[in-house]
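It would be a great kindness if you could assist me with a short task in structural biology. The matter concerns a single protein, recorded as an amino acid sequence and a row of backbone structure tokens. The record follows directly beneath this note:
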Amino acid sequence: MKISAFIYLMLIVIGGILIGISSDYQPKEYPMSVGFVLLMFGIYKTTQLVSRSRREQKEPTDDESI
């Protein structure tokens, strides 16, 4: 799981960089669009990963229910 969290973080960083440098390119829409998609996908998958880990922590085990 730590590898996937790193990949999602890299997607967020790369997306932010693409959005930031999109003003240097002539057709500004393409790098900005790709950067925005990567950024949003990375944020989406990161929130799913965090949500799943929180649910796993909250689930009571059989020992705790007794």
About this structure: Residues 6-54 form one domain. The chain has two helices and no strands. The CA atoms of residues 21 and 31 lie 8 Å apart.
